[in-house]
Amino acid sequence: MVFVLVVGGCFAVVLNIDTETAGRETLATPNRGPATSKPTAPPSDAATAPEEQPAGDASGDGPAAIGSAITLQGLDSDVQVDAAVTQIFDPATSENDFIKPKAGARWVAVEMQLKNTGTAVYTDAPSIGLKLIDAEGQQYSQTFGDVKEGEVFSSITANPGDTRKGVVLFEVPDGAKLAKLQFALNTGFASEKGEWAIP
């Protein structure tokens, strides 16, 4: 039964449902099987594709190991890079007698390898996007200098399929215990961050 109420130019519809009839109708509905029955249409590729793993190690359980590559997306969806921390030189050795770590500090050089696996040209300053974190949670940004352990990354341009390798230099207190590294594309502004544990 339906009632229509009109008050001052506005109206409302009030429904009165017979619960006894509704209950009988529900009982009379044929059983369509369990909710887990097979779909009638084949699943799409998107439904059967493996779930994308978050940045970190391959299982998504935490930071990756040194030497492991992590696939990261840039701000542009066409930019994708396999990033790997390949070695850590602690302490790193200055190549210049005049530029050295300040008193009470040491240099740490982190060697990275970046492979452009996207479809666009990858242009970046990876040394800005890499952060070193110690056991106390103190975060360090790059410092400037030249070391014997490798060529320092500045800015890079890599076509799809190209690989670039270099070191990022940090200055940390002598007593600092290193814990992990974090890296993001686009000078650190990309939302995906890769993380590696330092043993």
From TrEMBL:
Residues 85-189 form the DUF4352 domain. InterPro entries: DUF4352, Immunoprotect_excell_Ig-like. Gene3D superfamilies: 2.60.40.1240. Residues 34-64 have a biased composition (Low complexity). It comes from the Bacteria. This is DUF4352 domain-containing protein. Residues 25-64 are annotated as: Disordered. Keywords: Signal. The keyword Signal applies.
